[in-house]
Design brief:
This protein is mainly alpha-helical and about 350 residues long. It is about 85% helix and about 0% strand. Helix 3 crosses helix 11 and helix 10 runs antiparallel to helix 15. The longest helix is centred in the first third of the chain and has 48 residues. Pfam families: AI-2E_transport (PF01594).
Length: about 350
């Protein structure tokens, strides 16, 4: 192995190690890029419709998003927490009644599972002991909370910086590629922005519609805790395939506390909502969404959650959306689609040369 090759190999290993060590910072930076990309669509709309200066449009967009988030937390989260605590207590009772309702269901839901789920109800009973432990571990709690707050502020600040003037950051990124390939990378970045924005708008729209429809349906059926269950259904929509299945368990278990027919009605309601989402909502917004295979989305979420924790789980789908665009454009179109065996390449060159000679002769 030549010295230059060895040095290059070692440089790649060191670079990968450094990237792994700062993976948390990179994920936070990518989160800022995602938020900036999505909010930038609102900025463009304000610039186009209201003829506003970009800085004014950015200020209005960021302020509006922050007001919406703070309002959502203030109005929805407190009652959601109260209802969720009651939800944790009622679900084990409903599952126990479900298992005793039918022998086949009893085999499907063994006693061990019910005992494990019932253990969630003891969380409220151990609240005092948990509070005492918090006092003893105050420094760890303070450090964790401070870290979350600082990371959130970092993402917000970087998002605003990217929104205020995104051109210099894109130009710096383009400098990492050879001059002849920068125009191609510019197009790929535009495709990433389009797909990422479409995915974000689509998934937020789906989550909102499913939460609203679930809340209305559960309220009409008289199921307990409609707010907590509907919000849970909307949030779990972020997890394709598995999320809708998980979201139907709590309301079904609580409906069983009232009557078996009500539980069946809840299952039918959720199936109907998912059919509306799959056959009506998704085709409408698919024009703006990037198509992700269900197995790939699920595996990406599991993999990123294992390697990067909760932040990796949150960013798994947008990372997959961006990675899919880069793989399709660079690996597939620019490399594999143009890959030809040497003999075939020579034959093509000879054929082109023969055609050129015939044209010149005629």
């Amino acid at each position: 192995m030549r010295l230059g090759t060895l040095i290059g190999f070692l440089a790649i290993i060191i670079a990968l190690y450094i990237l792994w060590r700062i993976k948390q910072v990179l994920l936070l930076a990518f989160a800022a890029v995602v938020f900036a990309t999505v909010i930038n669509q609102l900025v463009k709309v304000l610039q186009k419709k209201l003829k506003l200066n970009r800085k004014v449009a950015v200020a209005i967009s960021v302020t509006g998003v922050l007001i919406f988030v703070v309002g959502f937390i203030a109005l929805v989260i407190p009652p959601f927490i109260v209802q969720f605590q009651e939800l944790v207590t009622l679900v084990p009772i409903g599952l126990e009644q479900l298992s005793s309702w039918n022998e086949w269901l009893h085999n499907l839901l063994p006693n061990e599972l019910i005992e494990d789920v019932r253990g969630l109800g003891t969380l409220t009973q151990n609240l005092q002991a948990w509070a005492n432990n918090l006092v003893g571990n105050f420094f760890d709690l303070f450090t964790s909370t401070l870290g979350i707050v600082l990371n959130s502020l970092l993402v917000i600040v970087v998002t605003i910086m990217l929104l205020a003037n995104p051109t210099p950051y894109r130009q710096i990124f383009l400098l990492a590629f050879p001059a002849f390939y920068r125009q191609r990378v510019q197009k790929i970045l535009n495709d990433c922005e389009k797909n990422l924005s479409g995915w974000a708008i689509g998934i937020l729209f789906n989550m909102a519609v499913i939460a609203i429809l679930s809340g209305i349906g559960l309220w009409a059926l008289g199921v307990r805790l409609p707010l907590a269950n509907s919000l849970l259904a909307g949030i779990l929509t972020f997890i394709p395939n598995l999320g809708p299945v998980l979201s139907v368990v709590p309301p079904t278990a609580m409906a069983l506390l009232d009557a078996p027919w009500k539980a069946a009605a809840v299952v039918i309601l959720y199936i109907a909502i998912q059919q509306v989402e799959s056959n009506i909502l998704t085709p409408i917004i698919m024009k703006r969404q990037v198509s992700l295979l269900p197995a790939i989305t699920l595996l990406s979420q599991v993999a990123f959650a294992v390697f990067f924790g909760i932040l990796g789980l949150f960013l798994a789908l947008p990372i997959t959306v961006v990675a899919q665009v880069w793989l399709k454009e660079i690996v597939v179109k620019d490399i594999l689609d143009r890959w030809q065996p040497s003999n075939q390449k020579q034959n093509n060159q000879n054929r082109n040369l023969k055609v050129t000679k015939n044209v010149l002769h005629n």
